[in-house]
């Protein structure tokens, strides 16, 4: 029978764009695309007949988007892959960080703004990345 697993938009220990913020849709689509790519790098392509899906969800603050994995719960390879996804990674890998910055160099800054909190660690990281990107 068809089932799905909700997967966070970003690895669990990473900040994400907040629904209702000015750049939410743009940032969320980056997050979902990059997170999906990282999961596939880590675990391989989904088994035949299963797939990732970007799903809109309604909230008081507006529509937010999640990455879901759709699978058949009667097929062992589908269930095994879903289990891997639920227990996946906690941080962006290097390829994901590069991908994010290529998609929008201001991503980390915009996410921080969307969270409306001061994050010295994130700010320091963004500054390091920008320094590296601006080296000749």
Q: Termini separation (Å)? A: 55 Å
Q: Tally the helices: what do you get?
A: 5
Number of domains: 1
Low-pLDDT stretches: none
Overall structural class, as computed from helix and strand content, comes to: alpha+beta
> Beta-strand percentage?
15-25%
What form results from the Cα inertia axes? globular
N-to-C SSE string, H for helix and E for strand: EHEEHHHH
The neighbouring-strand order within the major sheet is 1-3-2
Helix content: 40-55%
Overall number of strands: 3
Mean pLDDT over the full residue set = 88
Radius of gyration: 16 Å
Report the biggest beta sheet as strand number plus sense, adding barrel if it closes: 3 strands, antiparallel
Report on the architecture of this protein.
The protein has about 140 residues and is α+β, with helices and mostly antiparallel strands. It has one domain (about 1-135). Helix content is about 45%, strand content about 20%. The protein is built from five helices and three strands. It has helices at about 25-45, 75-85, 95-105, 105-115, 120-135, and strands spanning about 1-5, 50-60, 60-70. It has a three-stranded antiparallel beta sheet with strand order 1-3-2, covered by helices on one side. A hairpin with a 2-residue loop joins strand 2 (about 50-60) and strand 3 (about 60-70). Helix 1 runs antiparallel to helix 3 (about 95-105). The protein is globular and about 50 Å long. The model has no long low-confidence stretch (mean pLDDT about 90).
């Amino acid at each position: 029978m068809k089932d799905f697993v909700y997967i966070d938009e970003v690895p669990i220990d990473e900040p994400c764009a907040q629904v209702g913020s000015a750049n939410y849709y743009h940032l969320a689509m980056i997050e979902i695309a990059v997170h999906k790519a990282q999961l596939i790098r880590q675990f391989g392509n989904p088994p035949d007949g299963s797939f990732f899906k970007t799903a809109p969800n309604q909230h008081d603050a507006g529509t937010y988007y999640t990455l879901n994995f759709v699978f058949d719960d009667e097929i062992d390879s589908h269930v095994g892959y879903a289990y891997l996804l639920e227990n996946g990674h906690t941080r962006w890998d290097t390829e994901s960080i590069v991908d994010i910055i290529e998609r929008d160099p201001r991503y980390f800054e915009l996410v921080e703004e969307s969270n409306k909190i001061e994050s010295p660690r994130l700010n320091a990281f963004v500054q390091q990345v920008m320094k590296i990107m601006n080296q000749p």
